[in-house]
Amino acid sequence: MGFLRTLAPEDLATAPFTYAEVGATREGPLPPGYTTAERSAVVGSDRAAFDRAVAAVFDWRMQHSIGLRVRASGPPSEAGTVVVLTAGFRRLGYDIPCRVVWARTDGDEQGFGYGSLPGHPESGEESFVVSRHRDGEVVFTTRVFSRLASPLAGSAGR
Fold this sequence. Notes:
Elements: E1 35-44, H1 47-57, H2 61-65, E2 69-72, E3 82-87, E4 94-104, E5 109-116, E6 122-132, E7 138-148, H3 151-156
Antiparallel strand pairs: 1-7, 2-3, 3-4, 4-5, 5-6, 6-7
């Protein structure tokens, strides 16, 4: 176990979210009072590209691609799944606990959003969605709103 470890994912199933606007990344405007971002990129133009991108989203590949280790109580395709992302070295890593708030697993728009739990350095939510447009274009979009969970969290990165 690392130096800054939280409970196992299963132990966080009923932990409260650290923000009030649960589910806000699914649709509509992102809430005020947070730093927000929405980024999209075209990742292909056919059904095969859509299927590959959806598989990547539901296999935690976005998190792995930025060097995070993933421990989860289930798949991101199920609301309620707890995921503990670990940043940093294996023995001195920092755990970042989240829970899947919503998931969309069928149709031309698929993905999920997860929100911060106690122990996360930020409060807020992030989503990962793959869309297939009528012209065949496949687009990956992330939406996030967050703010520091505490002043101490802000000093950790300095």
